[in-house]
Amino acid sequence: MKKLEPFAPYAYAVMRITHGLFFSFHGVQKIFGLFTEWKPVVGSQLWIGGMIELAGGLAIALGVKTRWAAFLCSGMMAVAYVQFHWKLQMGRKFLPGLNEGEHALMYAFVFLYIACRGGGKWSLGKD
Fold this sequence. Notes:
Layout: H1 8-32, H2 45-62, H3 66-86, H4 96-99, H5 102-117
Helix pairs in contact: 1-2, 2-3, 3-5
């Protein structure tokens, strides 16, 4: 497996870019109402979350202010998991696979890792 080690910076860059773009797509859905049947009210908590998803996801994908954007997005997804998925309920609602919060948790931890590591290869800015 040591043969793959030289490719680690590139694999990280691809992970950062794809996760940032996927995340920004959720923001596009919320802000512009594309590919969805609902659109949150401007200024609501979901709308603000959509703005963070759109701007933060693009910043992460482009590698601009990557650490700050990823830290903000990580925290937002942790709040989203607790508030909208787990809802501080014990029992079955505690498990991410049953409360449909696995994507929120995965984004939270991937963005936390990106916040710790920074932009890396193919980033447009300095961290």
